[in-house]
Amino acid sequence: TGSPLSLNLAEPVWKQLAGMPLTVTDLTEIDKDYVPGLMYIRDMDKDSEAFENPPMPFSTASASGDEVKLSPKYNKITPENRQEYVRLALNYRLHEFEQQVAAVREGMARVIPVPLLSLFTGYELETMVCGSPDIPLY
């Protein structure tokens, strides 16, 4: 119809809709404390009592707050497996919404040819769908 839509989606979602992969920086935009928490675990002293009291489960919270077990191989985070934990946790959160984004892209494909979506950045795609967020003051 040519009218902008009011879709309040996070910037990283628009980036995924444009076919661009997410980065750790994008994850920080959605959850500002998540990545620093992982970096704290990664950089903890291997003799730290934090690994034991209480033991940290080898799982992560999803965006909805549900606990997601990251590996059947480990039950808790240890100094020996913490690098693997950080890698798996980041991977889970960076790809958490791919199924939902694919469904939205499929719907958009009925209006816009999917190959055209990859010609735009997330911001450009958002501007085309929702209109410019800038209000000119003349």
Describe the structure.
By secondary structure, the chain is mostly helical. It has 7 helices and 2 strands; from the N terminus they run H-H-H-E-E-H-H-H-H. It has a two-stranded antiparallel sheet with strand order 1-2. Helix 3 (34-43) runs antiparallel to helix 4. The longest helix is centred in the middle third of the chain and has 13 residues, at 82-94.
Q: Which features does this protein show?
A:
138 residues; single chain; two-stranded antiparallel ribbon; 7 helices; mainly alpha
**Mean of the pLDDT scores?**
87
Strand order, biggest sheet? 1-2
Helix content range: 40-55%
Query: C-alpha Rg, in Å?
Result: 19 Å
**Proportion of beta-strand residues:** under 5%
Strand pairing plus helix content: what structural class? mainly alpha
What's the count of strands?
A: 2
How far apart the termini lie comes to: 27 Å
Q: Which outline best applies?
A: elongated
Sketch the major β-sheet: 2 strands, antiparallel
Secondary-structure element pattern, one letter each? HHHEEHHHH
* Alpha plus pi helix count: 7
Low-confidence stretches: none
